[in-house]
Amino acid sequence: MVRAWYMDDSLDDQRLEHQLSPPRSVSLEDLAKNTGVMYYKLDPKKYEEEGKLSRIKEERGYNYMDVIQVSPEKMHNYEERIKVFFEEHLHTDEEIRFITEGSGYFDVRDQEDHWIRIEVTPGDLIILPAGIYHRFTLDTKNYIKAMRLFTGEPVWTPHNRPADNMEARKNYVLQQSKGFMVK
């Protein structure tokens, strides 16, 4: 099951947990309600037979997918790419990742602009809403394999902060002020 917590302000290695002292966990319900981030648990080995991924794809209109492996051995220009992933940014579309191997962290901002770290491991499917400021990093194991899902043609364009004048950000902030629906 996914874990989430508020982060400390340490500038130590980004791949560490960065828990507050004492730790301050965030429940899945609070994560969804306050940030709009959605979470599903799937079987990383039997997801096709399980049918959950197919239902999610159909419900949300995802019709394109690919697989990415992030590690020093698997990714060209690894050091450069991992720095780009860790820059705070937003996208104009949802960011959907289904983790099939390895692990890492998605960091998202709450309403008060504090970082919440979300640990993802095999079987975790996470959906970040369009317009949310976020970033990604590996953990100390330095490896993750994830399925990326999209509606229509894939768009990977990150818009680094500040991007508050973008329509996706304005829509996200408005929805966040009203509260997100929790399933």
UniProtKB/TrEMBL annotation:
Broad class of enzyme this protein falls into: oxidoreductase
Function noted in UniProt: Catalyzes 2 different reactions between oxygen and the acireductone 1,2-dihydroxy-3-keto-5-methylthiopentene (DHK-MTPene) depending upon the metal bound in the active site. Fe-containing acireductone dioxygenase (Fe-ARD) produces formate and 2-keto-4-methylthiobutyrate (KMTB), the alpha-ketoacid precursor of methionine in the methionine recycle pathway. Ni-containing acireductone dioxygenase (Ni-ARD) produces methylthiopropionate, carbon monoxide and formate, and does not lie on the methionine recycle pathway.
Sequence similarity: Belongs to the acireductone dioxygenase (ARD) family.
Localisation: Cell membrane; Cytoplasm; Nucleus
Origin species: Scylla paramamosain (Mud crab)
GO molecular function (one): iron ion binding
InterPro entries named among the record's database cross-references: ARD, ARD_euk, RmlC-like_jellyroll, RmlC_Cupin_sf
UniProt keywords, alphabetically: Amino-acid biosynthesis, Cytoplasm, Dioxygenase, Iron, Metal-binding, Methionine biosynthesis, Nickel, Nucleus, Oxidoreductase
This enzyme's EC code(s): 1.13.11.54, 1.13.11.53
Catalysed conversion reaction: 1,2-dihydroxy-5-(methylsulfanyl)pent-1-en-3-one + O2 = 3-(methylsulfanyl)propanoate + CO + formate + 2 H(+); 1,2-dihydroxy-5-(methylsulfanyl)pent-1-en-3-one + O2 = 4-methylsulfanyl-2-oxobutanoate + formate + 2 H(+)
Positions contributing to Ni(2+) binding: H89, H91, E95, H134
Superkingdom, taxonomy of origin: Eukaryota
UniProt cofactor note: Binds either 1 Fe or Ni cation per monomer. Iron-binding promotes an acireductone dioxygenase reaction producing 2-keto-4-methylthiobutyrate, while nickel-binding promotes an acireductone dioxygenase reaction producing 3-(methylsulfanyl)propanoate.
Membrane topology: Peripheral membrane protein
PANTHER family: ACIREDUCTONE DIOXYGENASE
Name of the featured protein: Acireductone dioxygenase
Swiss-Prot/TrEMBL cofactor(s): Fe(2+); Ni(2+)
Alphabetical GO biological process terms: L-methionine salvage from methylthioadenosine
